[in-house]
Description:
alpha+beta; ATP binding; single chain; six-stranded antiparallel beta sheet; Diacylglycerol kinase; 2 domains; nucleotide-binding; Diacylglycerol_kinase_cat_dom; Rossmann fold; 486 residues
Amino acid sequence: MGESSDESKFLKEFYIPGYVLSPEESFVSAPDVPHCPVLVFINSKSGGQLGGNLLLTYRSLVNEKQVFDLGEETPDTTLRRIYLNLEKLKAEGNEYAINIQERLRIIVAGGDGTAGWLLGVVCDLKLSHPPPIATVPLGTGNNLPFAFGWGKKNPGTDRQSVLSFLEQVKDAKEMKIDNWHILMRMKAPKEGACDPIAPLELPHSLHAFHRVSASDELNKEGCHTFRGGFWNYFSMGMDAQVSYAFHSERKLHPEKFKNQLVNQSTYAKLGCTQGWFFASLCHPSSRNIAQLAKVKVMKKHGQWQDLEIPSSIRSIVCLNLPSFSGGLNPWGTPNSRKTCDRDLTPPYVDDGHLEVVGFRDAWHGLVLLAPKGHGTRLAQAHRILFEFHKGGADHTFMRIDGEPWKQPLPVDDDTVVVEISHLGQVNMLATHDCRSKSMHDPTSPRTHTDDQNSDEDDSGLDEEQRKFGAADTFRIPDDVDISRLS
């Protein structure tokens, strides 16, 4: 079906000529500079057939060479090539390339893991003009897209649906969000396997596939040290246990997990079978957060303090975005009394602070469905430290941005340490339905008294540590099935 003149004019606003994308392309007389040039990255293995169908639709609407299948080429390779070519063209005085780079936006279609992958790559590449990113929800939870107004239901893949999404991208506003560095250290086992956890069982965002190098100042002899990062949340306890059961089931029977509604239904059933709704009866007290770990928070620079965790808390969430477990907001909006008495603020996504929330069980979690429901507000902090010592449990469950793993705990007198600290920011695209709040929005008054965006913590970091992840770029190893990220 041919394009109407109006549609053709609209699509030119997103079109990038081939010679801008690749040095191998021959120069042609450039059309008018597009208002909103886009690079589109699609996880073709996400959302069942949706990813593949979306790939075909986008390639039929814009230059097919500006639409990339993440199953064929990694985003770090793609962006490095394109930006090197843009810099070459700029050095030659090409004004068109300069305008393209200034206006460039990225669309990424996939689950939260795929979106986080792209965000990490853009963060690590230290691009001269980092493009803001819009996210298409193709996963199960879709917390990242929902937080910025892109919805949480899998989208249509037909021509009209994609045109409508492109219209939203063109009109979207830019918003900065914090990103968080996470370090995990544990002693190397004296006996048994070299690695305490099978590499493929750890989230890609922890770079567990390659431990930090011997030259990394965080490396300690006799220890395994992993580092990586996250955008939305780190959680530990029963919620991560249910998520781990879901991912394990999907890994065993991938053919049963092709539909978003089926996935969500299966997730809810696992919440019951894992005892999350009857945690007080099924869950041993040795697995409660207070029994598992000593938690410290740093609310102001350089001042660690112990965080008291109620004995009934079985799940703890360190939240960056107001979207968890399918779009719920565990922190809510503290009233004026809480703001005054405890110095609590709304959950800004660019204030350099995480919201730390606790839950007793799944019934406690259901209060989030109420208009003003929230979890147990524990703290807001820009650094958080978990120390695990030998206790009644030999493992717990952890989760980063939807990716869970089973974490061994100390069996001797050693310690497992997880430390989370503020790293930097990246640019997102948000629609008018955006749920996330910026501290720089005039309608969202800033109430923290210290400098939330202070970079003083970064002053002592080497170049390795300034990166979002541990690798040269935030990449997925070649032997990992990227369908795990959806």
